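Q: Sequence in, structure out?
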Amino acid sequence: MRRALSAAAIVGALALAVSACGGGDAGTAAPAQSAASDPSKITGEITWWDTVRPDSEGPTFQALIKDFQAKYPGIKVKYVNVPSDQAQNQFQTAAQAGAGAPDVIRSEVAWTSQFASLGYLQPLEGTRAVENEADFLPGPLSSTKYDGKTYAVPQVTDTLALIYNKRLLKEAGHEKAPTTVEELKQAALDVKEKTGANGLALNVDSYFLLPFMYGEGGDLLDVQNKKITVNSPANVKAMATVADLVTSGAAPKPAIQDSYANAMTALKDGKAAMIYNGPWALSEIYQGKEFKDKENLGIAPVPAGSVKAGAPTGGWNLAIYAGSKNLDASYEFVRFMSTPESQARVAKEISLLPTRASAYDNPDVQANKDVAVFKPIMDTATARPWIPEGGQLFQPLLEGYQSLVGGTATPEEMLKKVDGQYRGIFKDWS
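A: Exactly. Output:
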């Protein structure tokens, strides 16, 4: 997970969900094709929509494609990089139109059940795309299921951590990373006072609000009881904590737009000591001048609120478009890209977390210190609801976050508005 969805994406999702109810070719999954008796003889061209950062992560995945094409010389892979904040809406538009959709898409975990509910994804049971399902970690695997069927294969998993500049914290008198939000605030203020750099750079993105909510025992929904819980006392306290970080000066007032890029630049340039971010960001962070010496980068669990340290679960799956004309080739591609060996290479080169248990036994993965730090954080991360509406939860929360840090809404006002928007999505929930 990187950015919240655009308003257009949410509007498009709602409109397409309604129109898809009427059926159509794009909404009907084709029956699974049997694998060729000799997979190496499969021929055809497939298009893969990838959502990674093209400069820091893209080269690793393109190298894997070359390896795949060497093993399967009859299959040509057309690689298309689509920005992660645009891919959901673009895929839905193409799938609904029945033209222009890729054979394979890198689907954010929250999109997968939504795409499946609309009939846009090919069921994968009994295909070569799913190899040794028992080897996948339970959390990532659960995000691939909808209505009792498998519609994707977990590619990478992720969560959030506190990523920090060891030098700046040490100059401010802190040898270790803060473990609570109170310590986070104090460390950030000390950095500002003693080094001149900002203490904490906030990312105005819904995903990055979740640690504060979870830390106070809050959440967005109670799915089991069909209750909307975003407007709770726990979340009011969490939002007050975020607002206080800004008003106290522990974090500068963030830009409403491009806050992710701004926070990353500030960390890389030594203008901010701490940010919340995930393993996907590490390859880019190491390109910054402050981290040419990788030992200067610190990674720690997100600071705890009054209840717990609560990082969210994120990640990406590989899914196949139901209207693909090259299913066998797509199955082989998804299988290859999700093997323990492929996942180990990704972990070794760009520190993305594998979704297969066996990949963590690979010496290359075990030698990656960043993966070793993130793995226990991932093991205790808070699960998100894998429901078709899951992809629609972040835009209202993003708008609320923007109003909160922009000073136009109190925590109570922010959450009341988000609650109202959620009730427009979950009309029969209490």
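Confidence is low (pLDDT under 50) at residues 1-35.
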